Amino acid sequence: MIESMGLKADLHMHTNFSDGELSPNELLTLCVRKGLSIISITDHDSVSAFPDAVAQGKKIGLEVITGVELSASLDDKDIHILGYFVNYENKRLQEYLEFFRIERVKRAERIVTKLNALNIPLKFESVMERAGIGSVGRPHIASALLDQGFIKTYHEAFDRYIGNSGPAYEKKFQLSPEEAIQLISSSGGLSFLAHPGRFTSEEVIQHLIKKGLDGIEVIHPSHTPAHSAHYRGIVGEYFLLESGGSDFHGGKKSDGVTLGEYFIDGGKVEMMKNRLFSQQLSK
Ligand code: AMP
Ligand code: ZN
Ligand code: FE
Ligand code: FE
Predict the structure, then answer these.
(1) What's the CA gap between 86 and 78, in Å, rounded?
(2) Are residues 157 and 229 in the same domain?
(3) Which ligand is closest to the CA of 15, given by its number?
(4) Residue 3 falls inside a structural domain
(5) CA of 80, closest atom in ligand 1
(6) Are 106 and 80 in the same domain?
(7) Which ligand lies nearest to the CA atom of residue 19 in the structure?
């Protein structure tokens, strides 16, 4: 416990293996510059940043915890689940992630078809080009629309077209939160409910806890201090773990979110490791 206390830990950020702008190396360098000591890379549906990011972190004095962000849905509501300490070599995990990424490509194509029907001649190829090596998502579509002058601001894409109730919205393939939690657990990781302040009701949180959720992301740019206090209360009440981070994507997607400003204490990471250790002992 002692040695990590007082260190800044940011356990939520994205690289260009999903919809972030920076490569893992660029991101890690920036993390050190911003005074972080422990981070987790949590790309959507991808663990491709590992093991290189862990090795690079060792070189520059940054502890890098493996992570992933999965999209689940419950009663048509989006629920994001963060998995920490997952074994990125786990075959089942890798197969699932690859399947999700393929489904994302098909969904991006459906969104482009809808945009074309709305008289926006965006080409699917240009979206895939924008995504590059990353799991393709709506942020890539928004960037492609912006780059090609179909919209004036990044946000306009979501407000007018691809937001959850927009005319060009298409669902992704999504697991149930229970399946997401199980997938993370069977890959040796701990599961956390991401940014509950955005979408998630108290009732849903209770449901997830029953399904084996290990913790809640208490610190997130979308949370007010009241949100954080509220979720910290739930963490305490149910003996859960507390996480937090910036959800940094770099570039426009970060919307003013600055790395180094959203963090939890390193002692909280130590508590996660203790939980993991006792879970492994009881298996
Ligand atoms: P996807 O996983 O493809 O559904 O994309 C989800 C991502 O799109 C989220 O993680 C956000 O970064 C971004 N996003 C979703 N809704 C909005 C919105 N209304 N405004 C800006 N960004 C959004
Ligand atoms: Zn993202
Ligand atoms: Fe998310
Ligand atoms: Fe995220």
Answers:
(1) 22
(2) no
(3) 2
(4) no
(5) 10
(6) no
(7) 2
Residue 244 falls within a domain, yes or no? Answer: yes
Residue 256 lies in a domain: yes
The whole-number average pLDDT for the span 175-183 is 97
Taking each helix axis as running N to C, give the angle between helix 124-131 and helix 138-147, from 0 to 180 degrees, rounded to the nearest 10.
110
Residue 26, amino acid: E
* Ligand 1, atom nearest to 107 Cα: 3
The range of the structural domain enclosing residue 113 comes to: 97-162
Residues 80 and 183 both lie in one domain: yes
Q: How many CA atoms lie within 13 A of 259 on its CB side?
A: 28
Q: Using the atom order of ligand 1, give the atom closest to the CA of residue 78.
A: 4
Same domain, 272 and 224: yes
User: Which residue has 């926006």 as its token pair?
Assistant: 120
Give the model confidence (pLDDT) of 12-59 as tens digits.
Answer: 999 999 999 999 999 999 999 999 999 999 999 999 999 999 999 999
Q: Which amino acid is at 226?
A: A
Q: Are residues 84 and 115 in the same domain?
A: no
The bound ligand whose nearest atom lies closest to the alpha carbon of 139 is 1
Using most ligand atoms within 8 A of CB, pick from 19, 138, 145 the residue to mutate for ligand 1.
Answer: 138
Same domain (yes/no): 158, 200: no
Question: Domain check: are 270 and 130 in the same one?
Answer: no
201-211 in b/e burial notation, b at 16+ Cβ within 10 A?
Answer: eeebbebbbee
Return the pLDDT at 260.
96
Q: Which residues have CB atoms below 5 A from the ion given as ligand 4?
A: 69, 247
The count of domains in the chain is 2
Q: Work out the mean pLDDT of the chain and round it to a whole number.
A: 95
